[in-house]
Amino acid sequence: MRASLIVLYTDRLWECADFYLGLGLPLQVEQHGNGPEHYAAELGGTVFEVYPASERRPPTGSLRLGFRVPAHAVVRDLPTGRHLLTDPDGRMVDLEITKETNTKE
To answer: 29, 45, 89, 102: which is deepest, by most CB within 10 A?
Structure first.
């Protein structure tokens, strides 16, 4: 079994998208039909999306995410190693910055 979709709902769409872009996630703006514009990236077969919260889909609560990314992909000025960060909505993000370019291991 493998995760295929992670969706974060937020009242701070741009701030969250900017945070995850800074971690090296290749987010792109998308819109499906009449749905809201949101940000999405495919990460090794898992789709990661950041959507605007709504009355029907309230903000995603407490959640911990983990990402392993190569150092060259990270926009933030962080050294290689493990970093515990917090996104604009207060979700914990466990970021491992690696020297290698292959993040599947």
So the answer is: 89
Residue 90 CA to residue 12 CA, distance in Å, equals 11
Using CA atoms, how far residue 96 sits from 5, 39, 90, 102, 104, in Å, is: 20, 22, 19, 13, 12
User: SS3 sequence, the chain?
Assistant: CCCCEEEEEECCHHHHHHHHHHCCCCCEEECCCCCCCEEEEEECCEEEEEEECCCCCCCCCCCEEEEEEEHHHCCCCCCCEEEEEECCCCCEEEEEEECCCCCCC
Q: Could you tell me the pTM of the whole model?
A: 0.84
* Residue 36, C-beta contacts closer than 8 angstroms, at least 6 positions apart: 51, 52, 54
* Rounded Cα distance, 76 and 58, in Å: 29
pLDDT tens by residue, 28-68: 999 999 999 999 999 999 999 999 999 999 998 888 999 98
